[in-house]
Each structure stands twice: as C-alpha cells, then as structure tokens.
Amino acid sequence: MVQYVIRRIFATIPVLFGILFVVFMLIRLIPGDPCHAMLGEKATKEVCDRFVHEHGLDKPLLTQFGIYINSIAHGKFGDSFRYGIPITRLLIERLPATIELSVSALFISIIIGIPLGIIASIKHNSWIDVLTMLWANIGVSMPVFWLGLMLAYLFAIVLKGTPFWLPPSGRLTVGIDSTPFYEVWGWHLPDGTWKSTLYFLSNLHILNGLLSANWELLKDAVKHLILPAAALGTIPLALIARMTRSSMLEVLGQDYIRTARSKGLPRRLVILKHAFRNSLLPIVTILGLSLGSLLGGAVLTETIFGISGVGRTLFDAITARDYGIVQAFTVVIAIFFVLINLIVDISYAYLDPRIRLD
Asked: Which residues constitute the domain of residue 191?
C-alpha cells in the first residue's frame, strides 16, 4: 500500500510541472505585446519597459520559467491590475467561499444521490426506479441559473415571513460577528505564512463558527449556503444517483451476492456490506470529478447568489484582462484537481486490494 501511494505521488509531479508550464505560457501566447494586452491604454513606453523588466520578460524563456516556479513556491503571484492588491491576498479572501460552497454542494449530492441510487437499484424497474431516474434526468438537464433564480424566488420572496425563509444572497447577514477563531483564542502571531493560513481558514465561516463556538455565526452561514449549494449540487446529485444505480445493478447480479443471499444473510447486510462496497469504485470516481469541477468555479451560481468566490473573480478578471489573476487562480485550481485525483487513486487501492497488488 505504501509503495503504491509513493508511486502515485511521484506520478503527479510531471503533471504539476506540465500544468505550470501551460499556465506560464498563457501570458506569452497572448496576441501582441503582453504589456499592452494587460494594461491597455495605460501601457506607455516607459510603463511597458518597467513592466517587461519587473516580470523578467527580457530574459530567456527557461530563465523566466525558473523565476515563475520560484515565485509560486514562495506563494507569490504578483499584483492584480484590477484590484491593486497582491493576488495571494485575493486567493486567501475568495477561495474559501468557493471551497465552502463546493463541499456543501457535494455533501448534499452525496447524502441524497447515493441513497436514491441504492433504492432505485433494489427496486429495479419499479415505479420508484422510474421516478428516481426521471428526476435524475431532469436534474442533469436543468439549467443552474434558472434553478438558482427559482429557489431564490421561492424561499426568499414567496416564503418570506415563514420559518422556511432563506437568505437569497451573500455569505453572512450584516452585523453577524465573524471574528477569526485565532483572535477569539487570543493568538497574537506576527505577519507571515501562518497568519495567512489562519486568515484563510477563518474565511471558512462554518469552520470558523465551529472552532470559535460562535453558534450564531455557524447558523447564519449554513442558512446562507443552503440555496446556492442546492442549486449547484443538483447536477452532481443526478450523476451520483445514476452512477450508483448502474454500479449497484452490475454488482447485484454477481455470483457472490447470490451466494450471500442463499446463506441466509440479512438483506440489509448483503446490500450495504457486500454489494455497495464493491460498487464504490465508479462512485468514488464521479465524486472526485464532481468536486474538481465545482472547485473550478461556479460562475453562474456565485453571481446569482452574490458570492465573491473563484468563479466570479475569474469572470471579472477575464473581462478586465487581468491575466495575473487568471494565471494564479488556474494554477491553484489545477493543483486542487491533481490532489483530488491523487486521493481518488489512493482510495482505489484501499477499496480494492487487487489494484495495489497490480
């Protein structure tokens, strides 16, 4: 198992360098002069000369790539032309919102999609199976922006004044105390990596509410996440339900399942321990792909519900031609994708010992 994990980790290193090289070449492949492409009307000759020198664009390509790798290793992505602040600070501020939204959407997809898929496979060709798959097909086909607007209209306007009312936008209600947990505990750390890490974690409002025992913050953060997470998780939920059903149907027809039933084992034990565990590989695959896609930025969902996350920031950066943000966010999301795929590969070896032996 250890050797398998080490091999998989080393296999990701060339992938990471390939991703970094592609992102590095992005700015070099922009038609025309990179300075004029990024600065627009502000790009005078003096400004462009300074821009080229500061970004090392007057050096050989391999040297530029080495400088780029060194900057990323130190967590430096340069400054944003649109916001006028370091891009690393933008990542610390905006990435937690997308992570919180993505994990919440995937959580909703798992707790609803997997049971639906199991029930549909057990009740194969029954009206329950038909309704479940019909609902899953509708969920895949439903536009996220339409669903988000309908959910906001229903729970924020139609149900206003009832216990079922939910906030239609933002991450927190104005006035809610969101003091970082390290300040609540009295940590006085100097400026640096650890403080940046703690600030990043504190922007995860649910985690912050749990660690600081701020139950008002926790409740308000969860209420604000329900609608966007439900809208964003609809498509993964439908995919997970369909994949669980098809994988379970394949396993339920195997000989060892019939043998377990003939031995008189309880039906619940046969389904959950024997059938479900052996059908997990394709389900884990779709879970990993779904989480990676969600972390890539839900532009429409974040825009509809007023969440300043990765997707919305990337869209604004592209329209403003702030390619430094595009590069930085692309690198971070790509690294997340690689790490998620690594975790999925390792989980394969845990779920199926034959894989690690091969």
From this structure: 179-204
